[in-house]
Amino acid sequence: MKKKKIKKRMSKKLESKNLGRPYNFINGQWKKAGLGGNQFENRNPATGELLGIYPQSTAKDLEEAVEAAQKAFKSWRKVPVAKRGEILLRAMRVLQEHKEEFAQTMTREMGKILSETCGDVQEAIDTAFYYAGEGRRFFGQTTTSELPDKFAMTLRMPVGVCGLITPWNFPMAIPSWKIFPSLLCGNSMILKPASYTPDSARNLVMVLQEAGVPPGVVNLVYGSGNVIGRALLEYPEISLISFTGSSSVGSNIAEICGKKMKKCSLELGGKNAQIVMEDADLDLALEGALWGAFGTSGQRCTATSRLIVHEKIFKQFRDKLVDQARSLRIGNGLNPLVQMGPLVSQAQLETVHQYVKIGKMKDHAKLLIGGEILKEGEYERGFFYPPTIFVGTPEMRIAQEEIFGPVVVLIPVKSFEEAMSIVNNSRYGLSGSIYTRDVNRVMRAIQEMETGITYINAPTIGAEVHLPFGGVKQTGNGHREAGVTVLDIFSEWKTVYIDYSGKLQKAQIDA
Hints:
The chain is of the alpha/beta class. The protein contains 15 helices and 21 strands. Strand 3 (about 40-45) and strand 4 form a beta hairpin.
């Protein structure tokens, strides 16, 4: 009975804040954006349908959100952690009630197929559930002192007001990775979502409102990266920036945050590789390659963009991969028969196609399949690109630079050692995988692969919310999202000494 009531109340709120109205969410209220008057369209990348119109907010809008977050932080930080966890548990239940509805909205605005958007919402559900549990496990440490009659311990303290800048490819999962642990730690925040996925951000914030997050703790401000994103970096009242996006933008954010002594967490690009050795289960490796390269139309930071295959099985693997890629059904992600949706935008379509041209004309890679924009029939009004497979070499641009589309490069190798050298010959280091039955190779790959995530007999995608997520090199700045490790981003350690000796004791001297 209780679940049905929640669903009914939520549906009324969704209806009352209909698409097309230029609202931000500030201090617990849906408010029109400032006097700038500029707006952006939210369109279905499969059909071109206009879904809504959202505000290009002004610095004045952001200032109001910062003031609200500052004020709310003072009381929110005092709410017991277990109680904050209970709010996350309620958010999980509301997300469960609206999973299908939110997934359909997400497919309409960013294109990926419905099974994947259901998985996106499920990841937010899992994340809420995990951090609700951490509300009863918000552990510090107690330890002995080097001096008599002295007690020592550590505890986590909130950071303050957090600025969260999130991408469009996982428009509910990635914001949840940031919002839920940040809330648990006692922070207030301002979310600036990607302009391609405003509806999903709105739905997530409405869930938090329904779950009982107090006014001002979570604020949503729409707008461009150049205006709202940059202003978030400049505000001295914002203590932390958490950003997921490209390495070039992340580098700029790190520079600004470094100068202003802001805490900064960056989750950036990848050029992920799957190794297939001669002893691999070939059918399993093919399944993994298809899913890793063409799931989400290749628009994942963990997408498989290099396939490093032993020469003994290269021809067999190549031919089967091409056949299976050719058979993938491309179309509107709401169609349950479709296996790959459109790219998110015209700009993304042009970027991917430009890289394909580089592969053909400058890298002189061998194109096996794909390589042309789909324009006719059902594809006429959308941003569709087919699975595209090259045979190339490790130094080619298409084998070194992040493309963020359904493009993969096959690279033949003679040995495990050569394969590992090619995997590590990248400025990125997010995810990597190897398919082999040799346990010695498995253990060496775990040790030698320069990635933050390593998969054995599985594709380069498939992270789980209770484990650390992140990479090395230019994939980030050393932090890890998800799992218990993300709490180190959104909290500060405080060390406490209690001396009950009744006299002055000098550490390292009296000891």
